Automatic annotation (TrEMBL):
This is ABC-type polar-amino-acid transporter. Its EC number is 7.4.2.1. Signal peptide: none annotated. SUPFAM superfamilies: P-loop containing nucleoside triphosphate hydrolases. Residues 2-246 form the ABC transporter domain. One of its GO terms (cellular component) is plasma membrane. Gene3D superfamilies: P-loop containing nucleotide triphosphate hydrolases. Pfam families: ABC_tran. The keyword ATP-binding applies. It is found in: Cell membrane. It is a peripheral membrane protein. Keywords: Amino-acid transport, ATP-binding, Cell membrane, Membrane, Nucleotide-binding, Transport. It comes from Actinoplanes cyaneus.
Length: 250
């Protein structure tokens, strides 16, 4: 589903990704852990074409979206193909990023209608069903400011699902939430995982990683330091840096 090979990315002189190799199989949940600044968001953004890589290859869903060797120019898809690819990848951000002037239902229906030119009444019907799926059937006509953070994030997840993505990237989906609201969002992620959704989740929620992940990855300073099944990485880390990190977040 996703294959990254030798991916490098710098911002000026700051090397943020230093040779990332990563494979994600369809239908699996990958949880990425790692300290702030280790390159987790940049990695997700590279998969979704929000960052252009400096070196390496990124392949998503069988399609080579970008590659470059040292000194070579970046070979990547054209703008139209990039937009098409991006529509297949859902992205859920830490800060929900809902449109404040649209209702919950309109937020969910917006992209299929405006970007994919889908039929309006069918899209609204589907959007209603998706709000039901995240437990917000009764909030369809409410504006984001009238919703709690947890509810807003669940709308954002329904909005990502509305594009019927092949893959969903979550960048710290619960980090901006009050502690008592974290559980309701993780419950939605668990449901998606159980339904076989391919997901990459950057989170510090170790309990979620333990239950829901097929693979846990620990990143530090732009590298994947370790990866494996949750029980192995979380209970038996091989590297000191993983151990130190886990002792801080557990
Ligand atoms: P993480 O998500 O693990 O906290 P990021 O991928 O956001 O890490 O950032 C990794 C490093 O790259 C940080 O030092 C950050 O300040 C830097 N960085 C991220 N995006 C940019 C950017 N657009 N321009 C310059 N530096 C950036
Ligand atoms: Mg980040």
């Amino acid at each position: 589903m996703i294959e990254l090979t030798g991916v490098h990315k710098s911002f000026g002189t700051l090397e943020v990704l230093r040779g990332i190799d990563l494979t994600v199989e369809s239908g699996t949940v990958t949880v990425i852990l790692g300290p702030s600044g280790s390159g987790k968001s940049t990695l997700l953004r590279s998969i979704n074409h929000l960052e252009k890589i400096d070196r390496g290859r990124v392949r998503v869903d069988g399609e080579l979206i970008g590659y470059r060797q040292a000194g070579d120019k970046l070979h990547e898809l054209g703008e139209r193909q990039i937009l098409k690819q991006r529509a297949k990848i859902g992205f859920v951000f830490q800060n929900f990023n809902l449109f404040p002037h649209l209702t919950a239902l309109e937020n969910v229906a917006e992209a299929p209608i405006s970007a994919l030119r889908k039929n309006k009444s069918e899209t609204y019907e589907r959007a209603r069903a998706l709000l039901g799926r995240v437990g917000l059937a009764d909030k369809a006509d409410v504006y984001p400011r009238q919703l709690s953070g947890g509810q807003q994030q669940r709308v954002a997840i329904a909005r990502a699902l509305a594009l019927e993505p092949r893959l969903i990237l979550f960048d710290e989906p619960t980090s901006a939430l009050d502690p008592e609201l974290v559980g309701e969002v993780l419950d939605v992620l668990r449901d998606l995982a159980a339904a076989g959704t391919t997901m990459i989740v950057v989170t510090h929620e170790i309990g979620f990683a333990r239950e829901a992940a097929d693979t846990v990855i620990f990143m530090d300073e732009g590298r994947i330091v370790e990866q494996g099944p949750p029980a192995r990485v979380l209970d038996n880390p091989r590297h000191d840096r993983t151990r130190t990190f886990l002792s801080k977040v557990l």
